Amino acid sequence: MNVYDAHGDIWYDILQHSLKGERDIFRKYQLPKFQKGGVFGGTFVMWVDPPYDEDPKKRIKQIEAAVKQELIDAADILNIVKRFSDFQKGTDKEKSMY
User: Fold this and answer.
1) 10 Å Cβ neighbour count for 39?
2) Distance between terminal CA atoms of the chain?
3) How far apart are CA 54 and CA 12, in angstroms?
4) Is the pTM of this model over 0.85?
5) How does DSSP assign 11-68, residue by residue?
6) pLDDT tens for each residue of 1-13
7) What is the Cα gyration radius of the chain?
8) 19: Cβ–Cβ under 8 A, 6 or more apart, which residues?
9) Cβ-Cβ contacts under 8 Å for 2 (sequence gap 6 or more)
């Protein structure tokens, strides 16, 4: 069975690990869980957690920087979907649609 995660806090996890100097985080921590659970794709959200909500713009910039690096590190397994053809590309190449 294929599962689509409609609301994942993956970017939060990526940020936490990147702040510790880690890279290629999705592959190390999330991908095994997704594979085990039959999750083939998801919608990942950015949210500003307390106490960082006092300066949300700064926190979003931190998240964005971590996400951009992760998309480079995991380009072979992450496929950003903006339109249906991107979704098809991901499934055709057996990439995850995250």
Assistant:
1) 18
2) 18
3) 17
4) no
5) HHHHHHHHTTT--SHIIIIIHHHHHHHTEEEEEE-----TTGGGSHHHHHHHHHHHHH
6) 788 888 889 999 9
7) 14
8) 62, 66
9) 38, 39, 40
Q: Give tens-digit pLDDT for 20-42.
A: 999 999 999 999 999 999 888 88
Torsions phi, psi of 40, nearest 5? -105, -10
Cα dihedral sign, 83-87-92-97: positive
Contact, 74 vs 28, CB < 8 A? no
Assess contact for 80 and 90: CB atoms under 8 A. no
Residue 70 CB contacts under 8 Å (≥ 6 apart), including other chains: 14, 18, 23, 24, 25, 26, 78
> Which residue carries 């994942």 as its tokens?
8
CA distance 29 to 53: 26
Provide the 3-class DSSP secondary structure of residue 55. coil
